[in-house]
What we know:
This protein is mostly helical.
Amino acid sequence: xxxxxxxxxxxxxxxxxxxxxxxxxxxxxxxxxxxxxxxxxxxxxxxxxxxxxxxxxxxxxxxxxxxxxxxxxxxxxxxxxxxxxxxxxxxxxxxxxxxxxxxxxxxxxxxxxxxxxxxxxxxxxxxxxxxxxxxxxxxxxxxxxxxxxxxxxxxxxxxxxxxxxxxxxxxxxxxxxxxxxxxxxxxxxxxxxxxxxxxxxxxxxxxxx
Length: 209
């Protein structure tokens, strides 16, 4: 029995990946088309050509499916753009790539960020973008900051940036203007990081007054 199970996983894994991928993509398409996260699970299952039972097996409920669909979209389309950059890529270019992603999928993200999985999606996106912010802080300050301060500052920037993006996605005038938004974001970051720079040359950088 054990040997049979060991022989099965590769095929089952591929099948599971295909089903999960189809469900997440169907969720993105249907939420975008309807402009709401209140899409029946049966509709998503039908669009993905799987049974409702498969949806429950893989995700449990609709909120879990929509959360994973949102994070999967960011992993597939946004993170590669942020990772595939040259050493000379500026903060503005990274921010603009992020803004264009969310503007391009505004209907989908707005539906989720105003729905029942909003908090979970916000936390998930912060987690995805935290390494990007951590690298940005390191690029700005090098090894002059204590590792814990780097982590705290990266978390602070990720959380604040998430709130900034969420407000823009949900409340921004139609159509969203990624260029103008990026200019606002970069100006805000510049003021914040400029204010922090002097503390790195003092012995009490951990406790700025």
